[in-house]
Design goal:
Strand content: under 5%
Helix content: 55-70%
Number of strands: 0
Distance between the termini: 31 Å
Amino acid sequence: MTIASGLPELRAKSVAVVRGILLEWQPQQAVANLLFHPRLIPSESRVATILRGLTDRDRPYLTLAAAAGLQSMDRSEVAPTDGAVIRDRLLELIAEDRSVISSRASVSIESWLDSACAPALCRLLNHPNGTVGHNLLAWLIRHIDPAELAPLLHTSDLAPEKLLSAIRDADEYQRCRVAGGPLPPASNYLLSYVPNLREFQGLAENEP
């Protein structure tokens, strides 16, 4: 991350290297590094490359990299049809995955979802990955008015005490925004550690 952030504009020779890696779609760690830092991908192929990684069902590490890389992409760069594909894939990953992939996808939703997704997110609040559940609630608190959110939360199957806590957190967020004070912890996203490829493969091998 430090190296990527310090890189200047890539010269023609470096751009050619990047294009070659993406064309071959290997080595996997090199492809993933570009997906993690999409500004290094030539602009004309950036969105298509992210979409390819996000939908690569054979190599989940590339899916993780693309999901994380979305956090640094500007929504305005993406056509509405591609944005819809990204939105639906993020929701799919959150619903089906329990690993760091869903954790990072639940952070990347910030720029890619809209209020129409709120009912689906509420139904996922009991996600088995606690980080995912926290981040989904954070998105809802940030983007949905408490008066509209409360009835939606009642469809989430949250335990009564968690339901009341979520409603209180939504109200507190609005009060803090109006007052200009510090925002409550419930509205802040949690980031999960992103492993390198070897670590990721080791985690996958150790899953029950």
